[in-house]
Amino acid sequence: MSEPVAPSTRPTMESVVSLCRRRGFIFQSSEIYGGINGFWDYGPLGTALKRNLKQAWWSDVVERELIGPDGNAVDIVGVDCTIIMNPKTWIASGHVGGFNDPMVDCRESKARYRADHLVVIGRTAPDARLFAFLESDDDAKAKAIKTLCKYERIDSPDPASHTMRLFTTLSETDRARCVGPDASAPGSLTEPRQFSLMFKTNVGAIESDDSSAYLRPETAQGIFTNFWNVVDTSRVKVPFGIAQIGKAFRNEVTPRNFTFRSREFEQMEIEFFIRPESAPEWYRWWRDERFRWWQSIGLGSGNLILREHDRDELAHYAKEGAGTSDIEYRFPFTAPGFGELEGIAHRADFDLKAHATHCGKGEKLRYFDQERNERYFPHVIEPSAGADRGTLALLCEAYTPDPARASGVYMKFHPRMAPIKAAVYPLVNKEGMPEMAEGIYRSLRKKHAVEFDEKQSIGKRYARMDEAGTPFCFTVDGDSLSSGTVTVRHRDTLAQERIAADQVGSWLDDKLDSTA
Ligand code: ATP
Known about the structure:
This protein is of the alpha+beta class.
């Protein structure tokens, strides 16, 4: 058995990114033109991995039976809404005018930074120079410290007089003596300004203010605006949920950390509608259920945490409610800290009320509870997850260095997530072995994503499957034809066993079912 990977032996981000590129998990978008910052494409293995993640989410949330805190089956239906919506949606939701990050432009380098991510180091004296860097970028921090030391002709900063401060706390005169992360002279950074994260476009032939529209920055609003359609056309009753998986777009100021902060990404969101008084109970249930789910698909190690927000961190709609928490993963670039995979928030009745008001129908849109003969706006618990961040966490968690293997590394995906479930190989390309292996491959392929390959040495083929994270390899060898058996190679333990060739299908079904 291989040992669990200790935090200190966890992969660097460079090694994960390099494997993703080399094996076709993730590429830069439009790479042949030099790429485009904040946009990523998935190659064959990455597409299969991300599809498995989204499929598992949909199946576990919408299709399978879940028992809620009230002892009843949880009722959830799906929708698939458009990316461009009536722009009034974004006024009601608070995104126009509110969905802003304060940002800072550098007049010298033309770079743009999130103001709340910028930190400066330097002395407080009015003639001293300050050097800015992005808080999560260790290289930039080291560069800022080096430039400071060179400028002041010292060997290292003195913790007593060289303090670190947030850029947002600087006065105008402080800003004038601050050198930007990518600049050489002081005073090039502007004051923090609001910047809309929404991508704007035009609908129709004529470009005017009237034809302006936005690419959705979250999938949730399509769910809220369809709440009344779903209630009128299906048999749902509160408590129930609506789920959606789809693309969202945010013109992030500083896209970084591979796919973690992209400008185009996919969300998997549930809006769960409940009676206001049951919000605390449902909030806690969803928080725990979602944490359990991420663990069930292979993030069960100590790298996943559930973090309840502090009161002053809560969004405007959640202040009075049951709370907000994040499910966070320790990515190589956040370690020893964590980065958000999913947020679970009690949004109260903020969204439904806002849409009811902005569309002009107001109180008439209150939900009618037939059993109680009562009208109200339901409260909402929102578990909102990112499919790209989830896929990235699966990749980082699976990456297992192993110097004993030809590939030097294997991807320990949970079998349910593995892009390829099994490979079928003839040991050598002769003596009836390829024909027998191909027969097994054809029968497995009816149900599973499997691979057949007769080229190269068996060692090289195993190495390819180790890097792809394929949990099982079936090999037809010299004895297979006479004995009617094949060997199974287990990815994680490298153990081999012989099983009957005509049982390979049911053997694989059992293995995949028992881990589902
Ligand atoms: P952050 O604070 O990291 O910007 P957020 O709190 O704004 O994230 P939400 O608005 O709660 O994120 O979005 C829900 C989920 O969508 C996040 O948990 C994350 O998985 C995903 N997500 C949000 N922004 C991005 C992005 N720029 N790139 C990739 N995934 C994202």
